[in-house]
Amino acid sequence: xxxxxxxxxxxxxxxxxxxxxxxxxxxxxxxxxxxxxxxxxxxxxxxxxxxxxxxxxxxxxxxxxxxxxxxxxxxxxxxxxxxxxxxxxxxxxxxxxxxxxxxxxxxxxxxxxxxxxxxxxxxxxxxxxxxxxxxxxxxxxxxxxxxxxxxxxxxxxxxxxxxxxxxxxxxxx
Length: 173
Known about the structure:
By secondary structure, this protein is mostly helical. It is built from nine helices and no strands.
């Protein structure tokens, strides 16, 4: 509850106590994300494979932080761990979902079919193997376990049917 919030507040104040530190932290993150793309391929590996990669990434993040006068060791390590957590969450729950939504969207717009029927078609055809388990979980739960339809509607709101012509023309289909 609130005790955790206050703990985080003291950590926040310790790390981000000046506008300069805030600015540099954003720049540090941008540089870390750009230079550490290689780490994305390792974040979901088991401990024995992950640990050497984690150490290598941590050292690289500290080297990056050394280029900034307001990023101290503790903040560099905190930033790295936050980057790893966000990358793991992205790989586990988000990566490939945009392609699955595109495939569903094309079926909903071209065939005037329901979201659920389009979802079933995409699952059956398996154009996005990375998200196959996500689509299966959604289909097996009557109300939609992950509420993909709600996410889909939010992500595709306002996209006109004319976009599908562009998608085909641009070779994205």
